[in-house]
Each structure stands twice: as C-alpha cells, then as structure tokens.
Fold this sequence. Notes:
Strand order of the largest sheet: 3-6-1-15
Order of helices and strands: EEEEEEEHHHEHEHEEEEEEE
Number of domains: 2
Shape: globular
Number of helices: 5
Distance between the termini: 14 Å
CATH class of the largest domain: Alpha Beta
Number of strands: 16
CATH topology of the largest domain: C8orf32 fold
Helix content: 10-25%
Strand content: 35-45%
Radius of gyration: 19 Å
Amino acid sequence: xxxxxxxxxxxxxxxxxxxxxxxxxxxxxxxxxxxxxxxxxxxxxxxxxxxxxxxxxxxxxxxxxxxxxxxxxxxxxxxxxxxxxxxxxxxxxxxxxxxxxxxxxxxxxxxxxxxxxxxxxxxxxxxxxxxxxxxxxxxxxxxxxxxxxxxxxxxxxxxxxxxxxxxxxxxxxxxxxxxxxxxxxxxxxxxxxxxxxxxxxxxxxxxxxxxxxxxxxxxxxxxxxxxxxxxxxxxxxxxxxxxxxxxxxxxxxxxxxxxxxxxxxxxxxxxxxxxxxxxxxx
Length: 282
C-alpha cells in the first residue's frame, strides 16, 4: 500500500539552539520511500544521522532569534508480512535471543518492567503461548485504561498509567511494553504516521519479539494495524521523541497528516479482530 505523509513543526527560537528532529520515515525492509522532501523557511544546514535500526535524525543549529519552520513530505509504500497464529505463538527461548534484541527485555525510563513482574505474572502468566499472552495484555489495557487526551505528560511512565488508569497512545504503548518485558517477552516502542487517525497526529504503539519476528500490536485500537508508516523504534519514547531541543525555544505548532496516495487500494487489517494472523512490519 502507498501512503503520503506530511509533518510541519514551527518553533520560536530565543537563543542559539540545536534541534534533533525525528520525523523522517525510517529506512527499513518493510517500507520503500518513493520520494521525499525536507524544507525549512530559513537557510540552515540540515544533517541526517542514520542509526543501525534505520531511524533517521535531522540535526540543525539555529543561532539567531527567529520563527523556524521545518516541513517534511514523503510518499511511501509499505510491505507487511502476515504470520499465522501457529508460527507466532511460539515463545523465543531467552537463551537464544540475539544481542541486538536483549535490551528490549530490560526495564527502561518509562517502562519499569521490574516493578510490574508480580502483577504481570498473576494476570498473564497462565495464558498459553507468547502471542496469546501479548494479545491478553492488549485486551486488558484496552478495557481497563481510559484513553483521554491531555491526561498525561512527558513524565508519565507505565507505573503512573497502571495506577491512574488513564493515558494516551504513548502511555498505552509504555504499559504494553513494560508488561511484556515483565513476563520475558522482548518489546519495543514504535512511532509513526497513522492513516485516518483522528485527530491527525504522530502515533505510538509497540512491537513484541516472538519466534524470531517483531510483531505489531496497539492496545488503543484507534488505527488500522496496516495503516502505519514507521518513523522509529526504541526502548521507549525517550529514544524516539519527535524533537529533542538543546537551547531556548517555544513550539508554535505541529501539524501532521497521513493519507492514501492517489489511486492506492487499502485493505484494512486489524490484529485484534483477526487473531489467527499476526502482522510484521519487517
């Protein structure tokens, strides 16, 4: 499927400031960038930093007080893989997990899995099969955590969310990840552009590592599972923030959009409705 994505971020710069933007589509086997354009309203040097995961950061420094605007457009084709429940429901032995996956088993800043082990074991430990366990976690979060815009902040962690029982997509993802890690299933944060999301915004969800595959999950059920374009993966939101700023600025606005390209055919797939197959973004 082919999508068009757009984002525009505007900041008022007061003092010399360095920005690290995370808005470009990731370069992965699961998606092909057909065309893209990155522009700014002022002359400045833009440096792209590519991580081994395919995540791309844009670094720039603005030295004078100004209203700074950066705009990104891209046309992207996604390539998903459907994996049967039988293939997905085999838990990967911890003794065989590769070194690059191991960090996604450990607690992180927003996902304190070590403090949720007892709860996770009691609630989900008896479910048979890794894929079924993760679906059970998502089901519990969907029915027990209220989605409420403005209910959390950049400091909210998985422990806060399970205590207060409210959050946004970022918080749902953090709690999902923490509970997966707490029962020995590697899980990582996923941020991207989401087709038909209302209101339009960047969207956060997660992937769990099961039987050698990173499988997609989203407990919010706000978007179609195959309607995402990946920007980045990380341990949690601290690794994948849309903007990191070192200086003195004020955000004027952030505008995001994702829609089907002209003539593209979209066949929706939702993992929570079709539990016989899991979805991999590659």
